[in-house]
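Q: What structure does this chain adopt?
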Amino acid sequence: MSYSNSRMDNFWIDRQGSNYLKGIEGDRENPPRLPAYIILDFLKDYPDARKGYYELKDTLQADEQERLENIIKTSPNVMIDQRNHQEDEDYTQKRLNGDVIRLPTQQAQPVKDESRSGLVLRCY
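A:
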């Protein structure tokens, strides 16, 4: 299965035209192409997978649609766009490294905190 697609491709269809959403549990003639946990991972991590799912949903057999709907019911949040962990870390790091603006309200006075290591804190 291709992870990067052009605009004309669908996430779930490979170069040979196989649809990886097809299949029914327990059907020997039409077995699932992918297990449920992989489908959930792809739907959670890739917006193209969610878009491709909606594009192909109506082309599947009723039993296949029911299987996919049951998979999604186990984790309904997979269909919601969410930032991935790297984006969260990047956002936090950007906030920590941002410019600091200090307004001179009064002269900073050292405050000694006896309960800790003896560091002197300057409050602005």
